[in-house]
Amino acid sequence: MTNEKLTLSEKKIRLRELQKLLERYDNEYYQNDAPSVSDAEYDSLKKEALELEKFFSSDDLFGQSSVISKKVGATAKAGFKKINHTIPMLSLENLYTDNDLKEFFNRIHRDLSLPPSEVVEIDAEPKIDGLSFSARYENGVFVSGATRGDGVVGEDITENLKTIKGLPLKIENAPEILEVRGEVYMSKADFFKLNEEQEKSGGKLFANPRNAAAGSLRQLDANITKKRNLSIITYAWGEVKPSIPWKTQTEFYKYAKSWGFPIQPFFEVSTTYEGLQNFYNKVGHERHSIPFDIDGIVYKINRLDLQQKLGFIARAPKWAIAHKFPPEQALTVVRGITLQVGRTGVITPVAELDPINIGGVMVARATLHNQDFVQEKDVRVGDTITIQRAGDVIPQVVSVSMPDRPEGTTRFEMPTTCPVCGSPLIRKKDEVAFRCTNANCPAQIKEYLKYFISRDAFNIDGLGDSGIEAFFNRGWIKGPVDIFNLIKNHLDDMKKLDGFGVKSIRNLSQSIENARHIKLDKFIYSLGITGVGEATAIILANEFCTIDGLQNATFDDLTKIYGIGDKMAMDIINFFRDENKRTLISDLLNIITIENPVKIELDETNPLFNKTVVFTGSLTKFSRKDAEETARKFGAHPTSSVSKKTDLVIAGQSAGSKLETAKKLGIAVISEDDFEKLISQK
Predict the structure, then answer these.
(1) Which of 209, 400, 522, 671 gets the most CB atoms within 10 Å of its CB?
(2) So which residues are the catalytic ones?
(3) Considering the entire predicted model, what is its pTM?
(4) Each residue of 375-415: pLDDT tens digit?
């Protein structure tokens, strides 16, 4: 059913779904630098939400801060000091088609009450795909830097910005107060180099240059930022006192260049729709040769007096807009379909392709997700397919070119046995995935080992996926216990491997030793129990306080815990019934120390006992994780969303839609200071 055919009530429900989804994606993109969807998919969802918003007044949209058309970025990340922007850092509206561009061009003339023949200069320039920043200068000296954050409050990245060579720390002949704004980015060449270094050292691989730039800039240790080759481009300004000396956008670039700021290497001023269209097409055609990622063209009215006359809408200027490029696509040939085996035994088909350059990246593989996807697209070996790369490491398969299909091809069918160990495959009812039935399958073990050393589990730096692959294939690591004996048993042989010098081995050894002491919740998480993520592991640790207590928990013990249903309870019980799992735990307990939480006798009279609570906004005295864990120790049940079942909301700085929803539902709201006082009293 299309949105046009939905009832008003159904539209409101769909809009609320989109608001929650977009809030999650915003946090992934702006806070965690780890988007789970492509730009194209995000833009499509956002466009749908904006269309639905037109059917409602602001009061009907679950609180002002939930309104998609008024949102900018996301709340500043915990761990950084906060900086309030004296002038908000807004975002841009997007357009996607030539007709949209023509409408923007015509709207400018209408809103300015100008005849179509009147000349209006519009500056067009590539839109760099990076992280927005603001740099403040007082009397020519750089004093502070910030990310955009939610447009009102950003993260303090002053020390990190100082490490970027392109940012001048002193400028001459500048206004008394000057705030320049622009983009921090990483060139394609530096991105590839960084990922090569990360892979060798077992570090995190970045999905694209934007994620790499954002992750590098938003380091709590500025020395890490310094080691990454980051660049900046300046394209706007914030507060300027006593007055702005330039009268046009392009004149600002002359000032910025004279002060030593890097500016766009090429831009164009046009007075016609056709001129803007030609510039868009030209840059789009040449984008592969540009040394940094761009995702569209930005159009801005050149004259400042006309900008001021047009003004702003809720979250964006009316005198500027971004014309997004479509996802990059290319044709290539499927040379084979291979199967990957995951940690839980899930089998994923992958298309092996003729290598093709998409957006400066050589692509040779594309995920086919599952058998249903392959058969729906009808992808076959020998087919010519269209793939697109929209910010993903592994591109998406868009379609098959049927006229180019060679004779004699056959439909893909999932095999009946595991491609690695030969064990039977099963497909459970109501699941799309096929799974290997052998818990000792080498592929599953390797993937589990990668999970075991991950940050939220034993957090063993310096090993990484590539290290697990190398040591497993050599037979040095067959299970988790072998990791703790790796240096002792294989030091001499390890020294002969590329990427494992004296310093790397020393760091790895220290990381392994550090991992011998682990908190109970992280140990529970490391076991890989079906359905037990980080938050549930914390709940289980605080409830049972020892691994023995959890192992011996009954169905009733588990289901009485808030948030654990019948299915999860049975998954936990079945896990600990497995003799191999119990043996693994026993072996690990012989070589590690678990830090057990202290069992707190809950005071049923305290205000948090058995209350469903939600933390929202930026917390300054707790991390979100610590705040929720503290609340649990007082008997509360932290959740991520506000509903009629919520008893209390703890609101930090720049609290948004959740606070508005709480007020609308009449839910009690307290500040972070009040929360701190409340727990201190108890």
Answers:
(1) 209
(2) 127
(3) 0.51
(4) 889 999 999 999 887 544 568 888 999 999 999 999 999 99
